[in-house]
Every structure is written in C-alpha cells, then in structure tokens.
Model the fold of this input.
Amino acid sequence: MSLARRRYALVTVTGRSMEPTYRDGDRVLVKRRAPHSLRIGEVVVIQEPARDDGPAAAQHDVDPLARRWMIKRVLALPGDPVPRREVPALTTVPEEVVPPDCIVVVGDAGRRSYDSKQAGYFALGRVLGVVIRPVLTRGVAAAPER
Done:
C-alpha cells in the first residue's frame, strides 16, 4: 500500500478553473512522475506559488500537507518557445525559450483561471504528478471530501 501512495495521489478538484474538463468536487487519480517526462497538453497537479514568489521559487521546505495545489494543463515545457501570445505575463521576458526549471500552465476555463497568464513561469519542481483519470463512484463523480 505504501508503494501505491508514493506513486499515486487522489485529488479533489476545487474551483472552476478547469471547466468543462473537471468540475468543482470531481476527484482525480494523479500519477507522480518525474518532471522531465511531462508532455504538452497533459493535466498536472502543481503547487500554487505564493503571490510574492519569484517566477521559479521552489519552496521545497514547505510541509506537503500544508501546500496548496492547483490543477492545470501544460502549455509549454523547458526548451519550448515562450508562448507570449497566450500568456500575457510572459510578453516581456527576455528569453526565447522556456528556462530549464520552469513550466507554463493554464486552466481550461480561460479568464476564470489563476495560472501562468498572471503568474508567469511555474517551477517545474512543484509538479506533484499527472492526472491519469477521474475517479467515479457508481457511475457518477464522487462528492468532495468533507
């Protein structure tokens, strides 16, 4: 059982930033993966940056249970061209490609999502894992845990 906990996490979606793909209260199974194995278009669970963090602050010293997590779609990975048109926060960055330890993520709900459009780069090391599927209970999405 402990091996499964190290490889997988069950996450409850809160908020509307990933609608219509995932809705508030949906539960998803997340597979922990090495950041270098991520692909554009995958949905990831990533640690929410503190509003005063620099663009790629790692915060590895924070207790994992105290962290706030976000669910977002990968738009660009290290070495990809900087998506300036899609991400206003990156319009003035000097680099042409996403830096080595950074990732660009967005929500499916456009303006209702706090993501790279406002925060710029996220630290690649903040990724918990990739959503592999929703978790269903008797044919319907499970209610949020109380």
Summary: DSSP finds two helices and nine strands in the chain. The first strand starts at residue 8 and ends at 12. The CA atoms of residues 11 and 19 lie 16 Å apart.
